[in-house]
Design brief:
Two copies of one chain form a homodimer.
Chain A: H1 11-22, E1 27-30, E2 35-38, E3 48-55, E4 72-78, H2 84-94, E5 100-105, H3 108-123, E6 128-133, H4 153-166, H5 171-183, E7 185-191, E8 211-214, E9 225-228, H6 232-246, E10 254-261, H7 267-283, E11 287-294, E12 304-311, H8 314-321, E13 324-325, E14 330-331
Parallel strand pairs in A: 3-4, 3-5, 5-6, 10-11
Antiparallel strand pairs in A: 1-2, 2-4, 7-8, 7-12, 8-9, 10-12, 13-14
Chain lengths: 333, 333
């Protein structure tokens, strides 16, 4: 196992200290229970937004804490759900009386623990709404999931809901916007290699030198099919076809096209995939009016990519374009 | 060879088409000869800044074209210097009468071709200054270099000089600031794995499962030493010690600490390294007042990292903080 780490059991702890040292102008990192929180919370009249999940998907979610996106993020151990006490403390910390939205990726542990935290927060008089993200068209049920997995749409939902909350929309509104982003998003991923979970020390799965896995999950969960490695142009078709046919997107729809790296894939290759995905979208008469290209929801050092398509409308576009200032996404300020 | 590409010989061409499709609001991509240029050049009274080098180091340099950074970037084939005609066309295109600065990494081919392009541009009446970046303390001479290699300081010089040019500083001033950034920067890198050049199809070098290479170059050029894999804390010492002792930095100096991923290393590990590098800097009584963490000057999918330290002063800090809007670095706008 080749990684830039010390003891596997200290990875998340040391990473959080690195984030604290690097981004103390933006965030505070709290320990026991662990969460990353905006320095300026609670913000009067503003809905708080909390997300979280296992570590190993960086920059998601901790890199998205800041103005115009998340108020707090709860990192679990690698590929392990955070605990209800992390979520509860983060929820209490960001609550300014306007309520708190939990954005939850559809994994059984995340769902269960966020539900428990929401109940505990409500017992303390905090209004909480939860929205579950389940945009992955690859498989119906999966290793850690009943129903579809939550993947790339999470990044888009966190950005767009963050802007809505910054505009002082109500909790009900921000939650509705989150559901709208989820309803209008579809994703699919693929892997060229497995990742290695630090405390496991060996690859999560094995792929031969000439194989790839289509429909992979962000924890290395099995996808739709394992097949011989294909050129990028064919991979683009294999990812885009189920996405476009699932919603379905209609001619003339404006979309945001998000090409995401899994952690070990260089930007050069993401642009090759983007080139093909853009061409397929255009040929299907979708208008790609916004995009995001880079490694934002990752799977440790896995090589591969995912594609997410979000059908935009004026409201979503406006909130996407709104200023954001986090460690990983920043524009307009 | 597992990559998200089509034919190896078309990688750069398809990547450039992907960049054109993704970032047409910021840049125009020109072909034959290839260069990426700001949409709004030439800009009256502004020094033009052109850089370039082999592809495979993305987002450098093409991802740095835009307001407050580069006016144009010339991408060569993978790990191959761009040609003088690319540099000449880019130079002519961005020239607005205030002269053009070439920022050149110290590799023999880049130096030779940028010199030729500068001579040709001068023949056409364009004032050109060239600054060579050579911040890598690892080795004195190297596979493609006489003297020290140019690495991480290039990213910092492009940002800082871009801000100076945006502030309408003269060509002489912008070139002097570039030399100052180079003089006050030191870098060192390491690799856990080799990269694979697409048209070669096999690893550039081989490292055993328990080995790492300290002092590696961004094309996989040999470093100082190959040794057994060490924990991140020891890697931090192996990189920071030669950097700090080389300048030398003095107690109380303000520095920018740049932890860079080589392409295949996830952000989680970069924060573990940042945590250690920050601690070493602080223990040496350096004040880390700015930072950059991410994969900005890469070596395809190589796993590893580099550290760059820049001794700041008020002028450099002000230009670092100035607004920038490019595909890869964006803040303040």
């Amino acid at each position: 196992m080749k990684k830039l780490i010390n003891e596997p059991e200290h990875v998340v702890y040391e990473e959080l200290h690195g984030i604290a040292a690097a981004h103390h102008d933006l965030v505070e990192v709290c320990f026991d229970p662990n969460y990353i929180v905006r320095r300026d919370v609670p913000l009067k009249g503003k809905v708080g937004i909390v997300s979280g999940g296992g570590s190993g998907h960086e920059p998601m979610h901790g890199g998205f804490v800041g103005y115009g996106m998340l108020d707090a993020a709860c990192p679990g151990a690698v590929f392990t759900s955070p605990t209800p006490d992390q979520m509860l403390e983060a929820t209490k910390r960001v609550n300014a009386g306007a309520g708190v939205l939990h954005i939850v990726k559809n994994y059984t542990g995340d769902i269960m623990n966020f539900e428990m935290a929401a109940d505990l927060a409500r017992d303390q008089g905090i209004e909480v709404e939860s929205v579950v993200i389940n945009d992955d068209v690859a498989v119906e049920d999966s290793l850690y999931t009943a129903g579809r997995r939550g993947v790339g749409a999470t990044v888009l939902a966190e950005k767009i809901c963050g802007a809505a909350a910054e505009a002082r929309r109500s909790l009900k509104d921000v939650a509705d916007i989150c559901r709208k982003v989820n309803d209008r998003s579809r994703s699919m991923g693929m892997a060229l290699t497995s990742c290695i979970v630090p405390h496991a020390g060996k690859p999560t799965f094995s792929l031969a030198e000439d194989e790839m896995e289509i429909g992979i999950g962000i924890h290395g969960e099995p996808g739709r099919t394992r097949m011989k490695l294909k050129p990028a142009d064919e991979i683009g078709v294999l990812l885009m076809t189920p996405i476009i046919s699932d919603l379905p997107y209609k001619n003339g729809d404006e979309v945001l096209l998000f090409v995401n790296g899994m952690g070990g894939t260089p930007l050069m290759e993401l642009y090759v995939i983007y080139n093909r995905a853009y061409e397929i979208a255009t040929r299907n008469e979708l208008k790609v009016s916004r995009n995001l290209i880079g490694s934002y929801i990752t799977s440790l050092e896995m090589a591969g990519c995912s594609i997410t398509l979000l059908k935009l409308d004026d409201e979503l576009t406006r909130f996407w374009d709104a200023p954001v200032r986090t460690a990983a996404l920043r524009w307009g300020m």
